[in-house]
Amino acid sequence: MKNILYGGMAALLILASCGKEKVTPQKGNNGGNTPPDTTVTVSAYLTKALQTNEFVTDNLLTSYGGYRANTTTESSTSYEWYNASQIYADAAMVGIGKSAYATSMNKTFHWLDGMWDKGNVIGGYFAFSNLDGSGSSGTKYVDDNSLTGVVFLEAYEVSTDATTKAAYLTAAENTANWIINSGLWDNTFGGGFWWNTDKPVKPTQTNAIALQLFLRLYKITGKTLYHDWAVSVNTWLNTKMLGSNGLYIWQIEAGGKVDTQNFTYDNAIVVEDDILYADIMGDASYLAKAQGLANTMISVLWNSAHNVFIFNTTDIRMNGCYSGWASEAFIKLYEADKNSSWLTYAKGNIDAINVVLRDAASFGYYQYAGLDGAGRYTNLEGVDQAWMQRIQAMLSKYK
Predict the structure, then answer these.
(1) CA pair distance 156, 173, nearest whole angstrom
(2) Is 106 helix (H, G, I), strand (E, B) or coil?
(3) Reduced to 3 states, what is the DSSP secondary structure of residue 78?
(4) CB 368 within 8 A of CB 317
(5) Per-residue pLDDT at 39
(6) Which residues contact 37 (CB under 8 A, 6 or more apart)?
(7) Most CB atoms within 10 A, among 161, 216, 243, 393?
(8) Do the bridges between strand 251-253 and strand 201-203 make them parallel or antiparallel, or are there none, so unpaired?
(9) Among 146, 139, 147, CA closest to 91
(10) Could you tell me the pLDDT band of residue 41, with boundaries at 50, 70 and 90?
(11) In angstroms, what CA-CA distances link 340 with 132, 272, 290, 330, 363?
(12) How many Cβ atoms from other residues are within 10 Å of residue 53's Cβ?
């Protein structure tokens, strides 16, 4: 996840028609005699998820089954984690009953095979490639690979065909095998994974996503290997990366400098980790930990004037992926404890992003903007489209 380096609740409670839109079915073979009571109620968030996917299909999808990075500066390049995020988005659609999205989900899964390092016995995904999947080389990222493994496990869960499920599980285990055997976990700073094979920093998000992969693999396979790695990563995060304000810090640099900024998506990932840890490890205290962390995110990272989660504590902007990740975490927290206030924040966050970053004509999302829309970027990154499709599909079950 490279480009982070480049680069009033009263209002929220007004849930306009609970986020639903009335849709009247088109005239069919019954001569247009559709009775009035067959009008269906469709979530406005599902409508937007479908429209976002329309933008992705029209502007980013290639004939090879993968997706270009954006529509402007890198239209001939594909990023591995952008493509994995689109699989994640399509898996969310399948998960809410839109089974047709399994086709694109599976096609992109097979396309990603071109980015796997076949010249290395333990493999690992490279970060970028040409549109046809060729040309991959160079640095590999633990966070990219970890997220991809998590994505594969979500695709595994929503798939029904046994062969397809087995392929996703095998790919997730292969990805975890690369992470474990990459040599990127060492005793520097008491443990933790380096961000990538160049070893510049040890970040929270890199380790938090790896933790999520190990937890989910342990739940599915029961293998002690994944249990033990989950415990090790969890321990390191909570002893080295938890700041005095109750939020997880950004990273520790190779030279030892500690960067104490708090990122929304770093902490959102840990909220998800804690929910999983409570469930999979059987430790109920971790649900309370997730709730406490979410409340601290609200205290520090939520901007009540604009009803949105900020990018980080030193960069007060919004972004579809990095701000939006909080909505995913809060939806999952609602699913764990049924406290509807989490949905209120998840919805408000998405609503603010839709107002500021969504292009009403194309249904695409611009990358960054100030909270009031000032300085809005003009590029439309694939990863932001994927995450907005995903989280709105997730919210559509409830709003």
Answers:
(1) 12
(2) helix
(3) strand
(4) yes
(5) 52
(6) none
(7) 393
(8) antiparallel
(9) 147
(10) confident
(11) 44, 17, 15, 10, 28
(12) 24
- Model confidence over 12-36: pLDDT tens digits? 333 333 455 544 333 333 333 334 4
CA distance 346 to 307: 10
State how far the Cα of 371 lies from the Cα of 309, in Å rounded to an integer. Answer: 9
The predicted model scores a pTM of: 0.91
Q: How far is CA 244 from CA 233, 250, 261, 314, 397, in A?
A: 20, 13, 12, 17, 36
Structure confidence at residue 2 as a pLDDT band (50, 70, 90): very low
pLDDT at residue 97 above 80?
A: yes
For the record, the structure tokens of 248 come out as 């997880």
Burial 81-114 (b: 16+ CB within 10 A, else e): bbbbbbbbbbbbbbbbebeebbebbbbbbebbeb
State the angle between helix axes of 80-95 and 44-59 in degrees (0 to 180), rounded to the nearest 10. Answer: 140
Number of residues written out for the chain = 399
Residue found by looking up tokens 């990740």 in the block = 325
**Domains, the chain, ordered by start:** 2-6+54-395 (1.50.10.20)
